Amino acid sequence: MNNRPPSQEKTPLLDALRASAQKPHAAFYAPGHKQGKGIPEPLADLLGKSVFRADLPELPELDNLFAPEGVIQEAQDLAAAAFGASKTWFLVNGSTCGVMAAIVATCYTGEKILLPRNIHQSAIAGLVLCGAIPIFINPEYDPSTDLVYSITPTAVKQALNQHPDTKAVMMVYPTYQGICGDIKAIAKIVHQHNIPLLVDEAHGPHFAFHPDLPLDALSAGADLSVQSTHKVLGAMTQASMLHIQGNRIDAQRLSKALQLVQSTSPSYLLLASLDAARQQMALHGERLMSHTLQLAQDARSKISQIPGLELIKPRRFQALDPTRLTVRVTELGLSGFEADEILDQQFGVTAELPTLHHLTFIISLGNTQTDIQQLVQAFIKVAQNNRNSSTEQPAFCNLHPATCNLQPLLSPREAFFAPTETLPVTETINRISAELICPYPPGIPALMPGEQIKSTTIEYLQKILTLGGQITGCSDPSLQTLKII
Question: 227 forms bridges with which residues in the sheet?
Answer without folding.
Answer: 241
